[in-house]
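Kindly inspect this today.
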Amino acid sequence: MAVLRERRPRAPATVERYGTYTYRPRARWTACTTAGVRSGGVNFWTYVGNRHEQLLSDAYQHASAVFQCMVIATVIGVLIGVFSYRSEWAGNLATTATSTILTVPSLALIGLLVPIVGLGVAPTVISLVLYGLLPIVRNAIVGLRGVDATLVDAAKGIGMSRTARLLRVELPLAWPPILTGIRVSTQMLMGIAAIAAYASGPGLGNEIFRGIASLGSKNALNQVLAGTVGIVILALLFDFGYVLIGRLTIPRGIRV
């Protein structure tokens, strides 16, 4: 006699819903690893080849935004260093103020700027300039204070004015640490500039945010990876450029 056994229903897989997106833990790793590599026959390099024009445009906008903000931050940072390095109190105040700015999360700062200046380029430029100040200000103060006092006295002895001593003696000797501060600031801003896409800013951050917004689609991982790799490549290119600038502008005798 056949024995009939009651079949117990299989427990359904754990499913969590976030809006219109269904999250399945067991399929999570498979989805993440195959979506950007072999979903629909589109791998990463094919995706880059198909969208190379858009990626190059985003990369140019990203590099342009960082470069322009670095020029502004360098001018402001060096001026702050020039006006504050002679006074211990002023130097500490400048360093503390710029350090405080850097403690504010980038997304929070951009969110605070949007109601004031709107979306787009303005909050991007303001936030990047503010974040880029600390390394430049600190290194400018350290570099100017590190100039040998006997050289300054010698320049004063031959009749140089205070402005001439600053421009022809002190700033050239303080240039190596200032350039180091510029390099550090640039590397920081390369990553922070990606967050500016939250406020409709330019750059490769838009590619990353598009991938995050379309999580689960066949190109989500490709979009995030393309934006991230592009930012890393730009950072390396900028750093290589600073190395060349250092070779051309810093005398061999004072290179560190």
